[in-house]
Design brief:
eight-stranded mixed beta sheet, globular, single chain, 40 strands, five-stranded mixed beta sheet, alpha+beta
Length: 725
């Protein structure tokens, strides 16, 4: 579940060097969803303001480094849907132009034909297909006419092949088995993984390779023809799990070649190399038993890199950067000096180093690691930010960046050809040899290129974000983020919220969420306390792993440390404390409700685990339950498992005495909605004030605009009712 809460992510109005946005064509309809002209009163964040923001997606620099194409998704609350548009700007952010203006959901821009054309996905033909156009938006032409939706694509370096992703049927339906029962809704299940994330599994994504003559594809080949396996892997894998070799002769792909029970209990995916000429496949990571994902060839073709976890069944294992010499087969653990996860990576143009992002002390900077054997890792950026996707644009790095106070925008990190002078230096040998990330050293210039939502930010007052280090009950130091209301007055007393992170091993970094948004909580005059409790990455491997098999242990003591420490402040009203969270954070709320000793006056749990015995059997990815819970509840001699299930929140309902709001989506197959229903029922039967918000059409998240606005309204109505009396 680690990846579930990553929480999880543009232009008529910009400013400064970005220039003004120009529209290159006219609307197809009056109700076209595009940039909002919302007007905000009182300078306070609202749910409508959050949903009015454009969300920057794929970013693609041109081969000559002179232009950047990118996608933006806009939402309409009245229409309850979204639309994606494409933009092109100069590499310095100037001449930013919207080049599409339709309801056809154009996305995933990619430069082809030497940068003369832009390829992209569009639904103009009635299904998602690959199209091309000129960089100014003219000359649109359909390139594929595949019988089905294309979900992602990548042209070969020589431009003669197309690699794309499409779903193939892998499960026989009931109607296939009994054609005369064509109106039946029954689903016959014979093995595990019959549901995943938010769907009943009937298909799997496969990688296809086709010849491309410049205007159409032919000779389409399914690399996994006749196999029931996924590549890329559900539920979130995309084109980043596939890669072309520089000579266009090979495709590397990520795959877990397992089904049913074997799939449900294992994270053992591998990197496979498919030779286009011989159509032969070989596994280059067979010896590793955990996740191997996201291959990338070096520009010179001598190496291939990928992300790797060591242990089977542990989805939150240390995500390491590995490199293999393609000629000798030698493999190296390149990021060994960085005791946190490599979240994304990119080869440098000289093939001698790799850029990557990874969380450290509640922030996600950009780093560079050389192929040289010294093991040094240079941190290139600093500040209270999380960097996301990265791409080379000439001598610059182009990256998306967000914080607790601003959603994703596009930035350029420049002067990369100068001698590295790090903000911090990571070296193999232990934490005592790490230089402090708080030390101030020169870093590379960073320039903001887009100001997609500046017209909204200009109408808002944001709360101050502050990091505090707190001593835990076992004598460790824990970083806790504190977010203050706009116009904070230290002479007042404020209701305060403890935020419980999900995952469970997702960082409380500088994330920006359109649901769990700290600034909208602050705008409602709450102080937010967000601890990086035990079981989060960015503080060393030991800290990250401390939560497994110990859900009701030190991580909960860390929560108490954070809220108790803040409750000492004169501006925190210790008689008006609330506690909120989702996923593992929802579990935390349910658990704390039975153990908080009257600290809190209100709880909100979203998609949380209430009954761990039921969760063990209900969740689809059994490897998660096995690892984090320590085993099955019927394993009476398994001390770890027995400790886990003894700490199930449902066993402490007799101590519930505080109002609780339970929220859940019925399409959440990771944690089923009956968990929230049971918690709500238990509270009501105990005489505890409770409310239940159920979404029949939402999964582990809340994705539809009107559902999102409803979520915020109910959230704050509940908190205000109990914390602002």
């Amino acid at each position: 579940m680690k990846h579930l809460n990553l929480l999880l992510m543009a232009a008529t109005m910009t400013c400064g060097a970005c220039g003004s946005i120009q529209n290159s064509d006219t609307p197809d309809a009056e109700d076209l969803i595009q940039r909002s002209d919302i007007r905000i009163e009182n300078r306070r964040m609202t749910p409508e303001a959050l949903w009015a923001m454009g969300r920057i997606g794929s970013v693609a620099p041109s081969p000559d480094g002179k232009q950047i194409a990118y996608a933006v998704t806009y939402y309409s609350v009245p229409q309850n849907k979204s639309n994606s548009e494409l933009f092109v700007m100069n590499a310095d952010g100037s001449a930013n132009t919207q080049i599409t203006h339709s309801a056809l959901r154009e996305n995933q821009p990619a430069w082809i034909k030497g940068g003369q054309k832009l390829a992209y996905l569009s639904t103009e033909s009635g299904s998602s297909q690959v199209w091309e156009m000129n960089p100014d938006g003219s000359g649109k032409q359909q390139l594929t006419n595949y019988d089905g939706d294309i979900e992602g694509f990548s042209f070969s370096p020589d431009g003669k092949k197309l690699l794309f992703i499409a779903q193939v049927k892998t499960v026989q339906s009931t109607k296939d088995k009994y054609p005369d029962l064509d109106k039946t809704t029954g689903i016959i299940v014979t093995d595990l993984m019959y549901k995943h994330w938010d769907e009943w599994v009937t298909t799997a994504p496969h990688p296809f390779v086709a010849d491309f003559d410049g205007s159409a594809i032919s000779n389409v080949t399914d690399i996994l023809q006749g196999k029931p396996y996924e590549s890329p892997m559900k539920p979130f894998g995309g084109i980043e799990q596939l890669a072309w070799s520089p000579d266009s002769k090979e495709v590397a792909y990520t795959c877990r070649k397992k089904t049913g029970l074997e799939y449900a209990i294992s994270t053992n995916s591998d990197i496979y190399i498919y030779d286009l000429a011989s159509k032969q496949t070989r596994n280059i990571t067979e010896e590793n038993k955990g996740y191997d994902t996201n291959p990338q060839y070096s520009p010179d073709g001598k190496y291939i890199a990928w992300q790797s976890m060591e242990r089977d069944g542990y989805e939150a294992d240390w995500n390491r950067l590995f490199v293999m010499d393609r000629q000798t087969g030698e493999k190296r653990f390149l990021s060994k000096g960085f005791p946190s996860n490599v979240d994304a990576f990119l080869w440098n143009s000289d093939s001698q180093s790799i850029f990557f992002t990874g969380v450290w002390h509640g922030m996600t900077p950009i780093y560079n690691v050389s192929l040289k054997p010294d093991g040094w890792i240079y941190q290139l950026t600093n500040g209270l930010y999380d960097y996301g996707s990265i791409a080379l644009c000439g001598k610059d790095l182009i990256a998306t960046r967000h914080s607790m106070s601003e959603g994703d925008e596009i930035y350029a990190i420049t002067d990369l050809d100068s001698k590295p002078f790090p903000v911090s230096l990571f070296m193999e040998g232990g934490p005592e040899r790490f230089s402090s990330t708080d030390s101030i050293r020169p870093d590379y210039p960073v320039k903001q290129l887009t100001h997609e939502n500046q017209h909204i930010y200009d109408q808002l007052d944001m709360g101050r974000v502050e990091g505090r280090w707190m001593k835990t009950t076992d004598g460790k130091q824990m970083l806790t983020w504190v977010i203050y209301p706009p116009k904070f007055d230290p002479n007042k007393k404020y209701p305060t919220l403890l935020f419980c992170e999900g995952g469970p091993q997702s960082p409380v970094s500088q994330f920006w969420s359109y649901r769990w948004n700290f600034q909208i909580m602050a705008a409602n005059d709450y102080i937010i306390v967000a601890p990086n409790r035990r079981g989060l990455p960015g503080f060393g491997v030991e800290w990250n792993e401390a939560i497994s098999g110990d859900y009701g242990g030190q991580c909960m003591k860390d929560y108490f440390t954070a809220i108790d420490e803040m409750a000492k402040e004169p501006f925190v009203d210790k008689d008006r404390l609330g506690c909120v969270g989702a996923s593992f954070g929802g579990f935390s709320v349910y658990w704390l409700a039975g153990h908080h000793d009257k600290r809190f006056k209100a709880f909100i749990a979203h998609d949380g685990i209430f009954n761990m015995e039921m969760q063990y059997l209900e969740t689809e990815e059994k490897w998660f339950a096995n690892w984090d819970m320590g085993g099955a509840y019927w394993e009476k001699d398994n001390a770890t498992a027995q400790r886990t299930f003894a700490n199930s929140p449902h066993k402490f309902v007799d101590k519930w005495d505080t109002p609780i709001l339970c929220i859940h989506g019925e399409k959440d197959y990771r944690i089923l909605a009956n968990q929230a229903m049971a918690a709500f029922d238990a509270a009501k039967m105990r005489g505890v004030p409770a409310e239940l918000l159920i979404y029949p059409d939402e999964n582990h998240w809340v994705l539809k605009p009107q559902n999102g606005v409803l979520w915020q309204r109910v959230f704050f109505e509940w908190l205000d009712r109990w914390l602002k009396k």
